[in-house]
């Protein structure tokens, strides 16, 4: 009974601020694991937790020498982690910084005509099995990527996009960056993803698309040169085998506000119904 009474007494002493405090710490730990998942830093974090657990046991058993060694190791390990896993930590902090989009419903508005032109170009390149890589910038700026290519600042048109990716032309090698409703630059260099979970049949173009989507909130459209299949990369993940209609729906849902996108789809379905009646 005394044990049960002690538990009840302890629970009664818990304040609302204590619950908030624990919830915040738990949330931060959960987000940390989520950000570092499927990276090299994840394994190091697991090893660090094991060392902390082992050090706690050494303190409980009064193993002074072992405790001293563990404490010295943890002091050096902090600097070691920051130096060796700087790319992973930087990527995690960038993703954390983009978390503000979770609390904001605003989207960069896209012209529906521009999306239709892009979809038309990707479908044409897909039929011809011509490789293409198009990055659609969103909240996170890609100025450093744009600087690596040739600036265009031109309107989006399917003819221009097709001509850019035609083999053996000056701008075909690299990525096209679309900023709002303009083609900002072509022949841009993208960082390659170092993830070991990417399918082996995917080449450099797809790895570059995943790489830039890991470092920003952009949306990337890829056309495979080998198979002509259309893929979309976002947040470090890639979805494959889009056709013209599914690609249009995906882009409009992602890049146009929800109300506008639903109205467009309703108009398209209504137009199809009228054609059938005729």
* SSE topology string: HHHHHHEHEHEEHEEEHH
Q: Into which percent range does the helicity of residues fall?
A: 55-70%
Strand content: 5-15%
User: What does the main sheet amount to?
Assistant: 7 strands, mixed
* Gyration radius over CA: 26 Å
Rough outline: elongated
Whole-number mean pLDDT: 80
How far the N terminus sits from the C terminus, by CA atoms, comes to 83 Å
Structural class call reads: alpha+beta
Low-confidence stretches: 100-107, 258-262, 272-278
List the SSEs and their pairings.
Layout: H1 2-13, H2 16-36, H3 40-60, H4 64-84, H5 86-97, H6 112-128, E1 132-136, H7 143-147, E2 150-155, H8 158-165, E3 175-179, E4 182-188, H9 204-215, E5 219-223, E6 230-234, E7 237-242, H10 244-255, H11 258-277
Parallel strand pairs: 1-3
Antiparallel strand pairs: 1-5, 2-4, 3-4, 5-6, 6-7
Helix pairs in contact: 3-4, 6-8, 6-10, 10-11
């Amino acid at each position: 009974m005394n044990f049960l009474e002690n538990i009840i007494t302890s629970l009664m002493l818990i304040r609302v601020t204590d619950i908030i405090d624990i919830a915040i710490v738990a949330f931060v730990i959960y987000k940390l694991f989520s950000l570092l998942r499927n990276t090299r830093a994840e394994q190091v974090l697991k090893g660090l937790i094991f060392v902390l657990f082992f050090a706690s046991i050494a303190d409980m058993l009064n193993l002074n020498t072992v405790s001293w060694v563990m404490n010295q190791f943890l002091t050096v390990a902090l600097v070691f982690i920051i130096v060796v896993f700087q790319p992973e930590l930087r990527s995690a902090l960038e993703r954390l910084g983009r978390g503000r989009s979770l609390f904001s419903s605003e989207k960069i508005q896209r012209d529906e005509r521009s999306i239709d032109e892009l979809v038309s170009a990707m479908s044409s390149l897909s039929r011809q099995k011509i490789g293409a890589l198009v990055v659609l910038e969103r909240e996170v700026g890609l100025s450093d990527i744009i600087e690596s290519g040739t600036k265009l600042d031109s309107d989006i048109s399917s003819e221009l996009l097709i001509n850019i990716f035609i083999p053996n032309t000056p701008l075909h090698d690299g990525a096209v960056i679309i900023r709002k409703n303009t083609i900002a630059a072509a022949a841009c260099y993208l960082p390659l993803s170092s993830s070991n979970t990417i399918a082996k049949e995917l080449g450099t173009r797809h790895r570059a698309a995943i790489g830039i989507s890991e470092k920003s909130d952009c949306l990337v459209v890829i056309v495979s040169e080998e198979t002509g299949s259309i893929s979309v990369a976002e947040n470090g993940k890639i979805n494959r085998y889009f056709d013209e209609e599914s690609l249009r729906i995906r882009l409009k849902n992602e890049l146009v506000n929800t109300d506008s996108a639903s109205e467009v789809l309703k108009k398209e379905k209504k137009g199809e119904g009228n054609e059938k009646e005729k």
